[in-house]
Description:
- Helices cover 61% and strands 0% of the residues.
- By secondary structure, it is an all-alpha fold.
- Helix 2 packs across helix 3 and helix 3 (64-78) crosses helix 4 (83-94).
Amino acid sequence: MVRRPLAILALAIWAALAATPAAFAVQPGEMLSDPALEKRARNISAELRCLVCQNQSIDDSDAPLAGDLRRLVRERIMAHDSDQQVLDYIVARYGEFVLLKPRFELSTLLLWLTPILVLLAGIVLMIRATRPAAPTTGTPLTEQEKAKLNEILAAKDP
C-alpha cells in the first residue's frame, strides 16, 4: 500500500525536475521590460535551435551560446526589426540549421519530401508483395513435349 504513494511522489518529483531547465533558461536580466516585445522574443526564440543542444530551442536551453542568441534576438527586436527580419538575420549568421523547422525551399526540398517518398515507396512495395504473381508466358511446347505430357497424364488416369 505504501508503494503507490511513493511512486506518485517520485513521478511528481521527476516531472518537476524535468521541467526545471526550461523554466530557468531565460534569465531575468535577459527579459525585455515590455511584455509584448518579450512575447515576440519568446516566440522567435522557440523557432531557433540551440547549436550546442541541437534538440532544444534557444528559449529552453541554458547553454551559453543559447543565451547569446536570446540576447541577439532581443537586440534585433529593440532595433525595430520584424520577426521575419530577426529570423533572417540569425539565419544569415548561423545558417539554416539554426531553424528548428527548416523553410520550404529548393535547398530543403528533399528534406520535406523524403517522408512522403518513403511512404509512397512502402505502399508500392506492399501492393507488389500482396499481389498474386502473374502467370509467365514461356515458349510453347514442342510436339515431342506435348506427347510426353499426354503420356504422363494418361498414366495417372486409371
